[in-house]
Amino acid sequence: MTAIEVDTDWQSWDAEQVRDWQQEVRRLAAEQDTVILAHNYQLPMIQDVAHHVGDSLALSRLAASAPQSTIVFAGVHFMAETAKILSPDKRVLIPDATAGCSLADTIDADQLRAWKAEHPGAAVVSYVNTTAAVKAETDICCTSSNAVDVVRAIPAEQEILFCPDQFLGAHVRRMTGRENIHVWLGECHVHADISPSDLEQTVRANPDAELFVHPECGCTTSALWLTGSGELPAERTHILSTGGMLDRARDTRSGTVLVATEIGMLHQLRKVNQHTDFRPVNPRAACPFMQQITPPKLLRSLREGTDEVLVDPAVASHARRAVERMVAIGQPAGGE
């Protein structure tokens, strides 16, 4: 076996080096009683070596039930925090603790407390793409697949503060018809940059294609407008979480599917359906934070125990309640 060093240029590895890296990662994981979890937006090499691939909440829930004592979460920091919240007795590592999230960074606990003070009595619904401190100030969390059900479970007369994603919030308001939802003006810069013009150009260039759109995207309203105008048939237009995209991909008979989300998702879609051509609406929609988790950093994390994720027990306790309330409403089938 070729010795794989953590400071090598992994992008130039040949097939033998990749295979040696995979074997070393899996050997160390087994030796250290570790489960490796990778988000759908991770680099394909990371996804292929992980024990489990999925959305952040599904992976965190899986981590809580996994028998291993250590979790390596290949994703961004709030995801590893959520795993720690749901697995307080396990060691949780992230290969690069500086891998943040532009969406989670749009609101902090102080801002949420100030917003709550402006709307006393309002229920706070926070997307799982938030920090532990924000979850601790939240009444109930949601995912993109169950946000509508979560909001519908709140009494109709009660005001709602929905954070932090403005596009998901607008989608929930549209689907529920509720006018008493105040939406925080946050966004994931990668999804926001999948623009209406990107969508319209791609749809018109592929008139027979099916369309998968993540509700965090800036083009969600345009997708619904194209459907309403008849330019894109309603039966071929789907607003879906990442988990929902995978479920739909397994069943589709379309020759081409246009995908509006972070491009790492294409790897999983192509794995579950090799007969359909999955094309990105915006091929430049790559999250730089997700791509901070590289093969050498994953190896270093296993060798050196870096970087450990810790959450204050009091914060974790309050945050856990918000997640558990969400789960009590219904199983979050599709996740983000």
From TrEMBL:
A GO molecular function held by the record: quinolinate synthetase A activity
Alphabetized UniProt keyword annotations: 4Fe-4S, Cytoplasm, Iron, Iron-sulfur, Metal-binding, Pyridine nucleotide biosynthesis, Transferase
Cofactor: [4Fe-4S] cluster
Domain of life: Bacteria
GO BP field: 'de novo' NAD+ biosynthetic process from L-aspartate
GO cellular component, one term: cytosol
Pathway linked to the protein: Cofactor biosynthesis; NAD(+) biosynthesis; quinolinate from iminoaspartate: step 1/1
Enzyme Commission code(s) on record: 2.5.1.72
Keyword Iron listed: yes
Matches recorded under InterPro entries: NadA, NadA_sf
Pfam families membership: NadA
Protein name per Swiss-Prot or TrEMBL: Quinolinate synthase
Lineage: Bacteria, Bacillati, Actinomycetota, Actinomycetes, Propionibacteriales
